């Protein structure tokens, strides 16, 4: 059975960002995602200067910046187009060194995160891999996942596992309370 330092379940923006941050420190990382690629439609549309700072640490800002728009604000309207919240964002660099609000197209971000991950020799991305079961022990986590194409079952072990598997997280169901 192969062993990794960390297994990350889910390669959306959260999994992609965390994997990059951990890979920078030399950990061996297995990333499992059940889809065959990233989701091609936009969902998240905005992030702020703190998040840009994280992207700066990862080293994707140079390429990613050209896919962003500095956001001067957002108006939230109801079904009759009446403004219910006006949220202006000053176009002024903050103490974090970036603008307070950026708009983006989520697939562009996911592409940049994956491109950067490919540079790390100890990062292994497995698409079409759906995590089915995790068993927590004192010193490691055992993981069972299936290949969504041929339905074959695989077993891996890692020191840590992080759930980045979105709103309907499976990992949530394995929450453990330490006494
Ligand atoms: C219609 C729609 C509109 C949205 N609009 C906005 C918006 O305007 N602003 C905003 O901030 N957010 C929006 N969201 C939420 C948006 O999806 C999240 O902000 C963002 O995608 C969350 O990133 P994430 O990495 O946490 O999870 P996700 O992007 O959901 O990624 C989770 C990943 O985990 C994988 N996964 C799940 N279960 C397993 C498993 N058992 N085994 C292996 N892999 C697994 C999935 O395949 C997926 O790739 C919207 C969502 C939807 C559906």
Taken together, the total number of domains comes to 2
- Across the major sheet, the strand order is 8-2-1-11-10-9
Strand content: 25-35%
General shape: globular
Descriptive report:
The structure is a single chain. 21% of the residues lie in helices and 33% in strands. It is globular and about 55 Å long. By secondary structure, it is α/β, with parallel strands linked by helices. Helix 1 (13-23) runs parallel beside helix 4 (106-117). The strands form three sheets. Strands 8-2-1-11-10-9 form a six-stranded mixed beta sheet, with helices on one face. It has four helices and eleven strands. The chain has helices at 13-23, 49-58, 61-64, 106-117, and strands at residues 2-9, 29-32, 46-47, 69-70, 73-77, 83-88, 102-103, 123-126, 129-136, 141-147, 153-163. The protein folds into two domains: 1-41 and 106-179, FAD/NAD(P)-binding domain (3-Layer(bba) Sandwich), CATH 3.50.50; 46-104, no CATH class. The structure holds flavin-adenine dinucleotide.
Supply the key terms.
single chain, 179 residues, alpha/beta, FAD/NAD(P)-binding domain, six-stranded mixed sheet, 4 helices, 11 strands, globular, binds flavin-adenine dinucleotide
TL;DR of this structure?
The protein is an alpha/beta fold and 179 residues long.
Please give the structural blueprint.
Blueprint: E1 2-9, H1 13-23, E2 29-32, E3 46-47, H2 49-58, H3 61-64, E4 69-70, E5 73-77, E6 83-88, E7 102-103, H4 106-117, E8 123-126, E9 129-136, E10 141-147, E11 153-163
Parallel strand pairs: 1-2, 1-11, 2-8
Antiparallel strand pairs: 3-7, 4-7, 5-6, 9-10, 10-11
The chain binds flavin-adenine dinucleotide.
Residues 9-15, 32-35, 43-45, 130-131, 164-166, 170 line the site of flavin-adenine dinucleotide.
């Amino acid at each position: 059975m192969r062993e990794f330092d960390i297994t990350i379940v889910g390669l959306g923006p959260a999994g992609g960002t965390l994997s990059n941050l951990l890979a920078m420190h030399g950990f061996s990382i297995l990333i499992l995602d059940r889809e065959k690629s990233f989701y091609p439609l936009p969902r998240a549309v905005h992030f702020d200067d703190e998040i840009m700072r994280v992207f700066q640490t990862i080293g994707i800002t140079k390429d990613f910046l050209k896919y962003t728009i500095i956001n001067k604000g957002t108006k939230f309207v109801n079904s009759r187009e009446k403004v219910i919240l006006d949220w202006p964002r000053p176009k002024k660099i903050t103490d974090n060194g970036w603008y307070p609000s950026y708009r983006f197209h989520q697939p562009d971000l996911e592409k940049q995160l994956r491109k950067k991950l490919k540079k790390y020799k100890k990062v292994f991305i497995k698409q079409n891999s759906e995590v089915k079961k995790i068993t927590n022990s004192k010193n490691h986590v055992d993981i069972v996942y299936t290949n969504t194409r041929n339905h074959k079952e695989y077993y891996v072990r890692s020191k840590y596992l992080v759930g980045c598997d979105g709103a309907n997280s499976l990992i949530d169901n394995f929450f453990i309370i330490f006494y």
